[in-house]
Amino acid sequence: MENKKILVVDDEHQITRVLKRSLQAHRYDVRTASDGEAALDLFRDFHPDLVITDLQMPEMNGIELCREIRKISEVPIVVLSVKGEEKTKVEALDAGADDYITKPFGMDELLARVRATLRRAPHEKKEVTHLEAGDFSIELSTHQIFVRGTEIHLTPKEFELLTYLVKNHGKILTHRALLGAIWGGNFTEQTEYLRVFLGNLRKKIEPNPAKPQYILTEPWVGYRFNPSAFNKE
């Protein structure tokens, strides 16, 4: 099996050097670039399985890089951001990034995020009629959802929303991304839709809706779906 290929983009050479050495030690094939324009050129030749990019860079920043990559590829993208850059994180996620890691971070955390993101990477497309993730089992053809073996009855829109969350489990989904995917581009500012529907979903699927374990809130950013409950008593 070929080693997975990772493109690391950061204008701080010390960071790219450390990341390259650490990722190569775990058998990844790594290339580096110091700005978005150089990364885009390298991307076309290297065809990476994952891109890790900083947000603040000269020439072409990380957000612009995400947008350009998304025009030609669905390769997973993880962005590196400084704590407190919530607005920038949201912009990056809306531009097509799959996840973010806040600086400073530990190498163990980065490697865990890399493994998780690569596992979620899209494979060859085929018609899917059944979804399975953690405690959730979904029959798309019959619109049935089972949580830990128990069927949960949802409205059509709740079914659509939960299915989207399950398909993207582990990935941070911004308010705009969720609203656009479920209600369409004209509703990307209608956050009250999310509050109402996610509140209803939590009442139906969470062991304790007041302390959600499946639909997790990422403050100021959006939501992350965890398919397995922390406590299964």
Structure commentary:
The chain is of the alpha/beta class and 233 residues long. It folds into two domains: 5-120, Response regulator (Rossmann fold); 130-225, Orthogonal Bundle (Arc Repressor Mutant, subunit A), CATH 1.10.10.10. It has eight helices and twelve strands. Strands 2-1-3-4-5 form a five-stranded parallel β-sheet, sandwiched between helices. Strands 6-7-8-9 form a four-stranded antiparallel β-sheet, with helices on one face. Helix 4 links the parallel strand 4 (77-82) and strand 5. The longest helix has 15 residues, at 191-205. The chain is globular, with a radius of gyration of 19 Å.
Strand content: 15-25%
Rg (C-alpha, Å): 19 Å
Q: Strand count, sense and closure of the main sheet?
A: 5 strands, parallel
How many discrete domains? 2
Helicity range of the residues?
25-40%
Low-pLDDT parts are: none
Order of helices and strands: EHEHEHEHEHEEEEHEHHEE
Name of the CATH homologous superfamily of the largest domain: Response regulator
Distance between the termini: 40 Å
What is the class of the largest domain in the CATH system? Alpha Beta
**What is the oligomer described by this structure?**
single chain
Task: Report strand order across the widest sheet.
Answer: 2-1-3-4-5
CATH architecture of the largest domain: 3-Layer(aba) Sandwich
Number of helices: 8
